[in-house]
Amino acid sequence: MFHVFVYGTLKPGESNHQICASSVLEARPAIAQGQLYALPFGYPAMVLSTTTWDRSSIVRGILLSFADSGILDVLDTYEQHDPEIFRCYVPHLVLAQHQYDRMQIKAYDQAQRFLGFAWSYVMSLEQIKRLGGTYLPSGQWQQAEQYYAELPPTLN
């Protein structure tokens, strides 16, 4: 069994959970050290952090457990930006330089007890800044409807 830490649209109850739902053996709340940002594409990105635990360094997500590592191929494909949408929002940037990186991270329970290592999709802070990401101080993504409702019409 292996684990994937999801923090955005792949979480149960979010818009793209169906991509992996049939393969999930277990789903449990988890946190990771990092910061969460809303991207103008309609989903978030996480930056890893190794700072001491505080409210600004927690990303809240779900630890999904899978039996078959083949799900990583499915998730790798899904986690790549749609080239058409990317060009619409940031035509001056190179797509290949702004993809997620799949990395193994440490996952913790809500009491900050180590649960184990999990795969997750992350970006660097520089990538997120170039993409126009907005910091989410709660560290939690819930389709950020209010964030998108407040965007200027050109980004909405």
Report on this model:
The protein starts with a strand and ends in a 7-residue tail after the last helix. It is globular and about 40 Å long. It has four helices and seven strands; from the N terminus they run E-E-E-E-H-H-E-E-H-E-H. With 156 residues, it is α+β, with helices and mostly antiparallel strands. The strands form two sheets. Strands 1, 2, 3, 4 and 7 form a five-stranded antiparallel sheet that branches. Strands 5-6 form a two-stranded antiparallel sheet. A hairpin with a 5-residue loop joins strand 2 and strand 3.
Topology summary:
Layout: E1 2-6, E2 24-38, E3 44-48, E4 58-66, H1 71-78, H2 83-89, E5 101-108, E6 114-122, H3 125-130, E7 134-135, H4 145-149
**Which structural class best describes the helix and strand composition?**
alpha+beta
The DSSP helix count reads: 4
**SSE sequence, one letter per element:** EEEEHHEEHEH
β-strand percent reads 25-35%
Low-confidence stretches: 144-149, 151-156
| Overall shape | globular
Most strands sheet: 5 strands, antiparallel
Features:
156 residues; 17% helix
Summarize the structure.
With 156 residues, this protein is an alpha+beta fold. It has helices at residues 71-78, 83-89, 125-130, 145-149, and strands at 2-6, 24-38, 44-48, 58-66, 101-108, 114-122, 134-135.
